[in-house]
């Protein structure tokens, strides 16, 4: 069948596309920034269209000639996400009916038996209703906590358990949850394409076990080889307060932690398992909770995480020029530009540049970076904990600590856009060039466009530290590349003939 996928750059969408291709379907993906797909392994096997679900004309164009669609869009990062999501869903529902689409498949959340749903769950339920009311046969698959490397729910569980040997938690840790492995979610999504045309309804999907969140944390500790975790529940922590310590301890920022935790105040357990009457269980059966943890941790240890929750946010298109002289900047652009010659091979220097961040750090004054990361977390920013998806290779659009990869011209330029809380806009460019004599030259440029007086004062207050931070980066990055060169030469000399 011919399917269009909305949300292919998201956590589930990025994993679903290769599964659809493996099942023999033709796939068209619709993304706001096609550049984000430049480095994904399946990019050459799909048709890529630029579009936005909030633009009805682009949705109509995307649906031309298609037989079905997957709707995997959720704008959780925005404060007005319920309004945006409802508008987008109506656009897609209307265009799908007009285009004669034969099947809509949507992944939502299990809806608890409660008249007082969180904004997150209420929005997911509303989108499902809009699509079901479209007149197009629709399958709304509803899942609770998804366990898989890189998912927001898994990262929250992982970091809370690993970093807090003892924790005081709200009463919701005793609520029942039915987690499901991401591989099982993909199984149901792919096979939902085969549902009979007269089937148009919602289905709850879940794993084989119902646990409390407390049990999930304790079992995680066992699988990860950690000592037993002490969990003490108290009645005074509201979801908002809970989100504050989740924001501090885990990579999940407050803007996402709040709606996730608000959902956990309800029990999210499958009301029915009717899906199994239409779609057989996976060949090895539904994945047990411990097995799903083992699979997720194994991917993380191998640095084989194809998608992450943090990669779903859309940056400015990398082909766009850096904005200049915005009205609120007062015509001011600050730069810290540095160059340094090095004896390292250009390829070795690029390897160091592209592997920056994450476990390797930022090559200068680690304490300063750490303090700045904690300060950002305290004000609701992303901090440094998002790390890297892969230790050596980056993709346009993915998160890198508190940066977003905005542009890569391999092996010449890497441009990062800051996503920490700032009174302005900031970029960091790292590059490889040649000097007049043909030698290797490392180039580094920090750019800041201040927002009003606060932005001006911010840059001036940190300017005295630039010599230590940015100067240290130049020195340490080039030295690291030179050491790699020396180690290669030593290896070549000492290898037996």
Report what the structure shows.
With 497 residues, the chain is α/β, with parallel strands linked by helices. It has helices spanning 13-22, 56-63, 81-99, 119-132, 152-163, 182-191, 213-223, 239-249, 254-264, 289-301, 346-354, 366-378, 452-462, 466-494; strands at 2-6, 26-31, 47-50, 68-71, 103-109, 138-143, 146-147, 166-170, 176-177, 180-181, 201-204, 211-212, 230-234, 334-342, 399-400, 403-409, 413-418, 424-434, 440-450. The chain contains 14 helices and 19 strands. The protein has a seven-stranded parallel beta sheet with strand order 3-2-1-4-5-6-11, sandwiched between helices. The protein has a six-stranded antiparallel beta sheet with strand order 14-19-18-17-16-15. Strands 7-10 form a two-stranded parallel sheet. The longest helix is centred in the C-terminal third of the chain and has 29 residues, at 466-494. Mean pLDDT is 86; it is low at 314-321.
């Amino acid at each position: 069948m011919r399917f269009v996928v909305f949300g292919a750059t998201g956590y589930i969408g990025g994993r679903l596309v290769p599964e659809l291709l493996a099942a023999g379907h033709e796939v068209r993906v619709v993304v706001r920034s096609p550049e984000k797909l430049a480095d994904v392994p399946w990019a050459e096997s799909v048709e890529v269209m630029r579009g936005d679900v909030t633009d009805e004309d682009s949705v109509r164009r995307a649906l031309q000639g298609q037989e079905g669609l997957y709707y995997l869009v959720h704008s959780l990062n925005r404060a007005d996400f319920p309004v945006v999501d409802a508008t987008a869903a109506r656009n897609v529902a209307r265009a799908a009916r007009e285009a004669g689409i034969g099947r809509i498949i949507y992944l939502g959340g299990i809806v608890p038996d409660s008249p007082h749903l969180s904004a997150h769950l209420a929005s997911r339920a509303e989108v499902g209703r809009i699509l079901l009311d479209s007149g197009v046969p629709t399958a709304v698959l509803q899942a609770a906590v998804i366990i898989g490397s890189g998912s927001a729910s898994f990262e929250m569980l992982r970091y809370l358990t690993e970093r807090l040997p003892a924790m005081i938690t709200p009463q919701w840790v005793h609520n029942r949850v039915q987690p499901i492995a991401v591989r099982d979610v993909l199984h149901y999504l792919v096979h939902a394409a085969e549902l009979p045309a007269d089937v148009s309804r919602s289905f709850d999907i879940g794993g084989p076990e119902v646990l409390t969140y407390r049990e999930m944390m304790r079992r995680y500790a066992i699988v990860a080889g950690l000592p037993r975790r002490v969990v003490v529940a108290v009645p005074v922590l509201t979801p908002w307060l809970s989100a504050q310590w989740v924001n501090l301890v885990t990579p999940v920022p407050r803007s996402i932690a709040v709606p996730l935790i608000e959902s956990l105040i309800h029990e999210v357990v499958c009301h029915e398992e009717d899906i199994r009457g239409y779609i057989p269980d996976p060949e090895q059966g539904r994945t047990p909770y411990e097995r799903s943890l083992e699979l997720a941790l194994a991917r993380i240890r191998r640095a084989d995480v194809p998608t992450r929750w943090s990669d779903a946010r859309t940056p400015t298109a990398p082909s766009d020029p850096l904005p200049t002289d915005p009205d609120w900047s007062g015509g001011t652009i600050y730069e810290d530009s540095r160059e340094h010659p090095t004896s390292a091979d250009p390829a070795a220097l690029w390897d160091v540049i592209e592997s920056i961040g994450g476990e390797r750090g930022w090559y200068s004054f680690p304490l300063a970076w750490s303090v700045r990361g904690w300060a950002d977390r305290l004000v609701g920013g992303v901090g440094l904990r998002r790390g890297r998806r892969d230790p050596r290779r980056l993709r346009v659009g993915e998160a890198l600590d508190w940066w977003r990869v905005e542009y890569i011209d391999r092996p010449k330029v890497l441009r990062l856009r800051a996503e920490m809380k700032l009174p302005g806009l900031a970029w960091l460019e790292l590059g490889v060039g040649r000097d007049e004599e043909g030698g290797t030259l490392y180039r580094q440029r920090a750019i800041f466009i201040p927002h009003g007086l606060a932005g001006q004062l911010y840059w001036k207050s940190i300017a005295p530290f630039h010599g230590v931070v940015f100067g240290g980066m130049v020195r340490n990055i080039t030295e690291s590349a030179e050491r790699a060169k020396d180690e290669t030469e030593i290896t070549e000399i000492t290898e037996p003939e």
